[in-house]
């Protein structure tokens, strides 16, 4: 399984390198279209930068992944909270069970109490 992962990573690296080499031409990235950048009051938001196309592609992929991860993390918050609540309830019930068993077995012989506890766990 480890070798399959290495082969996959090697193929991915070759594909990304080929993509980068094929898309080295510079592109102009602007924060606003030309029509909006000339409007009064929006001049401060008008910025442009020239980057190779492969950087723009890779940055878009990374931004999409990060947005997806954050979206899923926020979406699954209710499930994590519910699991935490159930885990706390389980610990509380286990403590109560141990306390009840200890109370029940306080007058018994130690050997009989251990045998009784082992039969209830099985």
UniProtKB/TrEMBL annotation:
Transmembrane segments: 53-74
Keyword annotations of the record: Cell membrane, Coiled coil, Membrane, Transmembrane, Transmembrane helix
Keyword Transmembrane helix appears in the UniProt entry: yes
Keyword Zinc-finger recorded: no
Pfam families (alphabetical): LapA_dom
Record-annotated Lipopolysaccharide assembly protein A domain positions: 49-97
Domain of life: Bacteria
Coiled coil, from the record: 76-110
InterPro entries linked to this entry: LapA_dom (IPR010445)
GO CC list: plasma membrane
Listed name of the protein: Lipopolysaccharide assembly protein A domain-containing protein
Organism: Citreimonas salinaria
Classification of source organism: Bacteria, Pseudomonadati, Pseudomonadota, Alphaproteobacteria, Rhodobacterales
